[in-house]
Each structure stands twice: as structure tokens, then as C-alpha cells.
């Protein structure tokens, strides 16, 4: 069980009041959908575990709903926000939690966040939908062991299902293999569309990812190349979809994988074995 929050939250105005005061209507172009339910946000902040004096990176805090919950849990938060309209509201929140919030204005896709931290941070975010998958792949492709401690991320439910999908499931594909071959990915919590302002057209879910020890003698680039080819033509047999990967057909024989199988039937462990055989 996670430790209880230890920070005493100051008296803060309701998030709806903050949004109205600063004119923070959610921007569709920035993929924004705000979460305002304090109890729901506190539940999300508990997913990484005990955050007392832990460093946390948050992408796209918006008006600061999840930021409040992370700060109340005792975290020291670095928030990267592209929407400059949100900066004054976040500055106000920083004043309420002195020395606990650092806000960086900029595009998370262009900022190298790793050097911002002394230790490994947890990453916790209600990610903007239009950049969520790109950021996840970047974090999963980092040097291993990675510079982050865990990932607690909100995605559209469809994307969340793809990340945690089991072999042979309808959602199983390249993203599942990249997420699961050297980390543990679980669907931590579904979130109904009605919890957001404005409500998106789709359901959402929080995924929690914890890094594990990487299998020996396997390169991320090789696994990425294999999965891109295999799932790029997922309805074809492996002997067809992997023809473009030099040495892959011989590796199938070496590992003992039937070349008439299709990509969705190949487990994460089997893809790892193939990548190892390819060197």
C-alpha cells in the first residue's frame, strides 16, 4: 500500500475558478483535456508509490490539477508546459508550495529532460493526446537502465490497451513489444471520458510502467526493426513480412519459430530471441 500524502495542501481556489480567471479553455490543437476531480487526481498521484521528497517530471500540466496532487503527495515537481497561458496559474501554484515546483515553458518533444534531475524522477502526466505515443517511445528507447524511475501516464484507452496487450490479442503489436520486453506495463486505472473538461470522444486509462533488467545481447534498434517489419504487414506470414530484414529468415529457423506464423502470435520473448539471434 502506498504511503499517505504528507504535505498539507494549502487553501487553493477550485480549478474551475483558476481556469476561468486565466482564460484557460482547453486547446484542441495542443491535445488538451483537463482533469478537475481532486479525488481522481489524488488516486493517480498514488500510483507511482511513495512520492515524499521524490522528483517527478510532469508533461503538459495545464492549469495544474495533477500538479496539485503530486505536490500534496510530497513530490518535488518539474513541469514542462508549452501553453504559455498556463504559466501564471502554475506560478501561483508554485507560490503555494514554496521550493517544490519548477516550471519550464517549452515543447516536451524538443527538451532533453534527463539532465534536469539529480536522481531518477518518476514521470507522471496526463499527456496531451497528440504527443503521448511519441514521448512514450522516446522514453522506452532510452539507454537502459533508463534515466527515469517509473512512468504513470494517461492515454486514450485504445493506446493504453496496445501498450499492455497480451500476445495474440487484438491490440497486440509493436507498441506492446517495445513496452514489455524490458519493463513491466500494467493498466493501472480506467478513466471515464466524463472526468475531463471538455470530455473527449474516447475513454482513457492510466498506464504504469516500471523498468526491469534488459535481456542480454539484445539491441533496441534490432528489436525495433523487427517489430516494424513484422507488424507493418501483420496479416502476412513472417516469411513474407520479415523478408526485408537481413538475416531474419535464418534467425526464425535458428530460434525455431514457424515462418508461416503471423506477427500477432509471436510473443515478446520470441521477438527478443529473434533480435538476439540477429545480433
Automatic annotation (TrEMBL):
Compartment(s) of residence: Cytoplasm
Keyword Methyltransferase: yes
Reaction equation(s) it catalyzes: adenosine(1518)/adenosine(1519) in 16S rRNA + 4 S-adenosyl-L-methionine = N(6)-dimethyladenosine(1518)/N(6)-dimethyladenosine(1519) in 16S rRNA + 4 S-adenosyl-L-homocysteine + 4 H(+)
Entries under SUPFAM superfamilies matching the protein: S-adenosyl-L-methionine-dependent methyltransferases
Keyword line: Cytoplasm, Methyltransferase, RNA-binding, rRNA processing, S-adenosyl-L-methionine, Transferase
Domain called Ribosomal RNA adenine methylase transferase N-terminal: residue spans: 40-213
EC class name: transferase
E.C. number: 2.1.1.182
Pfam families, sorted: RrnaAD
Molecular function via GO: methyltransferase activity
Residues annotated as binding S-adenosyl-L-methionine: 33, 35, 60, 81, 107, 126
Annotated InterPro entries: KsgA/Erm, rRNA_Ade_diMease-like_C, rRNA_Ade_Mease_Trfase_CS, rRNA_Ade_methylase_Trfase_N, rRNA_adenine_dimethylase, SAM-dependent_MTases_sf
Keyword Methyltransferase included in the entry's annotation: yes
GO biological process entries: methylation
Protein role: Specifically dimethylates two adjacent adenosines (A1518 and A1519) in the loop of a conserved hairpin near the 3'-end of 16S rRNA in the 30S particle. May play a critical role in biogenesis of 30S subunits.
Family: Belongs to the class I-like SAM-binding methyltransferase superfamily. rRNA adenine N(6)-methyltransferase family. RsmA subfamily.
Record-given protein name: Ribosomal RNA small subunit methyltransferase A
Lineage: Bacteria, Pseudomonadati, Pseudomonadota, Alphaproteobacteria, Sphingomonadales
Amino acid at each position: 500500500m502506498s504511503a499517505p500524502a504528507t504535505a498539507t495542501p494549502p487553501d487553493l481556489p477550485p480549478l474551475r475558478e483558476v481556469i476561468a480567471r486565466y482564460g484557460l479553455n482547453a486547446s484542441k490543437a495542443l491535445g488538451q483535456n483537463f482533469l478537475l476531480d481532486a479525488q481522481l487526481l489524488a488516486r493517480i498521484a498514488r500510483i507511482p508509490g511513495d512520492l515524499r521528497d521524490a522528483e517527478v517530471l510532469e508533461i503538459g500540466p495545464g492549469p495544474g490539477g495533477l500538479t496539485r496532487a503530486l505536490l500534496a503527495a510530497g513530490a518535488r515537481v518539474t513541469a514542462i508546459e508549452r501553453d504559455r497561458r498556463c504559466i501564471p496559474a502554475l506560478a501561483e501554484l508554485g507560490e503555494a508550495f514554496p521550493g517544490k515546483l519548477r516550471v519550464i515553458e517549452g515543447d516536451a518533444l524538443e527538451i532533453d529532460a534527463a539532465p534536469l534531475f539529480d536522481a531518477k524522477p518518476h514521470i507522471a502526466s496526463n499527456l496531451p493526446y497528440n504527443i503521448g505515443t511519441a514521448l512514450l517511445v522516446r522514453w522506452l528507447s532510452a539507454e537502459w537502465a533508463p534515466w527515469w524511475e517509473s512512468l504513470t501516464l494517461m492515454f486514450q484507452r485504445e493506446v493504453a490497451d496496445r501498450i499492455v496487450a497480451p500476445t495474440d490479442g487484438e491490440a497486440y503489436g509493436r507498441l506492446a513489444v517495445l513496452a514489455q520486453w524490458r519493463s513491466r506495463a500494467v493498466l493501472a486505472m480506467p478513466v471515464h471520458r466524463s472526468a475531463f473538461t471538455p470530455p473527449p470522444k474516447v475513454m482513457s486509462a492510466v498506464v504504469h510502467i516500471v523498468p526491469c533488467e534488459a535481456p542480454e545481447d539484445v539491441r533496441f534498434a534490432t528489436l525495433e526493426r523487427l517489430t516494424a517489419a513484422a507488424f507493418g504487414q501483420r496479416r502476412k506470414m513472417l516469411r513474407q513480412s520479415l523478408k526485408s530484414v537481413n538475416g531474419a529468415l535464418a534467425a526464425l529457423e535458428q530460434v525455431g519459430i514457424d515462418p508461416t506464423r503471423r506477427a500477432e502470435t509471436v510473443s515478446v520473448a520470441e521477438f527478443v530471441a529473434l533480435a538476439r539471434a540477429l545480433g
